[in-house]
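Quick one:
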Amino acid sequence: MRAKMMIVVLVVAVMLMGCSKGISNDTPEAAAKTFIEALINGDEDTLNKINRSSSLDYPTSYLLSDFAPEYADRKIEDFTFEVISNEKVLAQSKDGEKKWTLRIKKIGDGYFFTGK
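Output:
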């Protein structure tokens, strides 16, 4: 009986992991929002998924140590996002203090941060 219960628990756990939400990056704006929100939350896992910049330019560890603390007191609602060219999205705080032109590039089926 215990073995059957353990199998059921494992099957449910695997199903839940398979249904977990991936990153939102189907448009340049969505990728920029995902990137900024990951900075706000200090979310290393999401940054690793959305960050395709050169490992010498913006490695995730650098983004977390040098940029994320500046965003920690913000919310995603504090920002506006504007696609300004084929591969650039302007992410700007509504108070004007934070302004970052993100290079967002289509790679495969999604858009990813590749630098600034």
